[in-house]
Structures are given as C-alpha cells and as structure tokens.
Amino acid sequence: MAAETGQVETADVLIKYKADVNRENNLECRAAPLHIATFMGSDCMVRTLAAARAQVDKTTTRGHTALHYAAWGGHVDVARALLEAGADKHLSVGNPRRGINAIFMAVIQDQEDVLQLLFQGDQRGANFCNLLLHVAARNGQVQTIKTLCESRCDVNMTATTEDIAGGLNGQLGML
User: Fold this and answer.
1) Which keywords does this Swiss-Prot/TrEMBL entry list (predicted)?
2) Cα angle for residues 42, 170, 141 (degrees, 5° grid)
3) Total domains, the chain
4) Coil, strand or helix: which one is 25?
5) Predicted local distance difference test score (pLDDT) of residue 6
6) pTM of the full predicted structure?
7) Partner of 37 at 20 to 30 A CA spacing, among 11, 47, 143, 175?
C-alpha cells in the first residue's frame, strides 16, 4: 500500500523491519511494490525500493517490468531511477523477436522524453527501428520519428509483416 500511495517514510519503516520489497500482490498480474510505484509515477518510492534491493527487472505474470510501466506512462524520472538501478531496457514482453520492450512502449505511447532517455548512449535500441518508425509514422508522431532518425534509424528499412503483426497486435495489456 505504501508503494501505491507514495508514502516513502512508511516504506522506510517497513523495510527497516524486513518487509519483502519483492513480494507480489494477489492481483492477477502479480505486481511487486516496484511495479506499483512505477505505475503511479513515484520516483522517490522507486529509488527507495531499488536501494532496498528490489529486483528491477522482475516481471509481472504478463511479462512487464517496472521499466515497461515507466515507458508506457511517460515517467521519465522513474525510468531514469530504474536505469540507474540497473534495469535492462532491452527486456521484451513475451517473444523477444517481436521487440516489445521499453523502447517500443515509449514509441507506441508517444512518450518522447522517455524515448530520448532510453536511446542515450546505446544504439542497441535501434534493433527494431523499422518497426518503431512504422508505428510512429502510422500514428503521426512527428517528434518521435525525428528522435528515431537522430538515433540512426534507417528510414528506408522495411518493416516485415511479422514485425508489424507482432508489435502492433502483441501483448500490451498493462496492470
């Protein structure tokens, strides 16, 4: 509950008395406190949980990590805190070949600031540029297209039918 309401002081006390920061809730998705704090956009709570050794790449039953939630919700400060704590921005939901990772989620939700953060210093994010550009063009996301092109995405690369079907119809259900 402290993660959901952003009560860092309460979380500190619970952690002091050995609360399990990785314990999942009883909901269908089995989210841990870090997922919930991220979904709520609480960077202070995320930093508190990460400092208490929360598993930053822990997945829900739907395969989402906290960084997926940060990218989806446009929570730049939370995404930064997760990356600083060692979160892997390339982890995919479901089939890794489909590329539904934090970068893809930032594109699909038009979260420009998060996308720029995720592309900083790492061109591996450009692996699925054809799909990312296709999605951004389809959605009319001009600024996202500029960011992708500035990140060395090839505008002449063709997205395959499989890429498009996997990315656009893939499992994107959140909490």
Assistant:
1) ANK repeat, Repeat
2) 65
3) 1
4) coil
5) 80
6) 0.81
7) 143
7 within some domain: yes
Q: CATH number of the domain that 137 lies in?
A: 1.25.40.20
- Residue 20: phi, psi to the nearest 5? -80, 105
Domain assignment present for 112: yes
Distance CA 141, CA 137 (A): 6
Q: At residue 147, what is the residue type?
A: T
Domain holding 74, by residue range, is 2-168
Residue 100 in domain: yes
Sign of the C-alpha dihedral, residues 89, 79, 118, 60? Answer: positive
Q: How far apart are CA 130 and CA 134, in angstroms?
A: 6
Residue 173, pLDDT score: 46
CA 102 to chain CA centroid, nearest Å: 4
Cβ contacts of residue 53 below 8 Å, gap of 6+? 21
Place of tokens 């990312």: 132
Q: Cα angle vertex 135, ends 134, 138, to 5°?
A: 85
Query: Over the chain (175 residues), what is each successive 10-residue block's mean pLDDT?
Result: 81 92 82 94 96 95 93 98 95 71 91 91 61 85 88 70 50 44
- Residue 56 exposure: Cα atoms within 13 Å on the Cβ side: 24
The three-point CA angle 37-41-132 to 5° equals 110
